[in-house]
User: Fold these one by one.
Assistant:
Number 1:
Amino acid sequence: MYQQMIFVNLPVNDLDASKKFYTELGYTLNAQFSDEKAASVVISDTIFAMLLTKPFYATFTDKEIVDATKASQVLLCLSAESREKVDELVDKAVAAGGTANDDVQDQGFMYGRSFNDLDGHGWEVMWMDPAVVEG
């Protein structure tokens, strides 16, 4: 059965620093789709972050590339298998040089935190009680 995939393209200031950041979160790089202009970060079997140098990213759009530390264009959200895994990923991001946002969301059945990567791209990490999701 076909599984749809997502490739999130992110402009980065320092490709090597960004690769190091994402691998410190526990993700791997796909060398087949990485070079001096881009790196493919494997988040899951169906989710990939494509880290693109800003000049290379600019070849895909005529629009201005926003400074993600000053403006928000998109907010990315990843699911986690438990509350502890939410904390683990955000804590890894902070240890790797990212910044945690102070907006812990705890509604009992749903728990989330968020962080910004080295370039200011916002990532939410969210857990939801499977019993609530199932019905």
Number 2:
Amino acid sequence: MKRLVAGLAAALALAGCSAGKDAVVQGSSFSFVSPGGKIDITYEAADRQTAPVLAGEDLMNEGKQLSLADYAGKAVVLNLWGQWCGPCRTEAPEMESLAKQGAQVVGIDVRDPAREVAQDFVRDRGLTYPSIYDPDGRVLLKLSGYPRNIIPSTIVLDKQHRVAAVFLRPVLAQDVLPVTQRLAAEA
């Protein structure tokens, strides 16, 4: 009997979290939905939604603001990372490789309460791309429905800053480069 009750409780909990087949995204602003639990998601141009303008303090330049609006007309690889995150330590050189190959990479450093430690991480790895410092996750709140607990993750925006791809896993430069090259060729 306890197993039956536990099984029913688990089924109800799972059903309560699912959106069903009738879930739709309304409006033109990006609201994240992972179709079928995919971890690599791409959007055709007609299906892309505009990302919110994400902005915050520049990690390396205290007092200076950094915004996606600074990169108008450019495709952007938005990488969520933290120096405390093991996979991020492996992924950071991959993001730097993307930047050196011409991709505009912008990081969002999350859940790093000690700014100096995150800055040391950037310096020690020779990272040249900018990052927004977001220790309390307020910048990420603008990403409606986006799973903020999946770090690292990467969102690729097209030239109009519409979401073209999402990677809910650590990536290699070779995973993201074809997406950025395709976006660069778009009108």
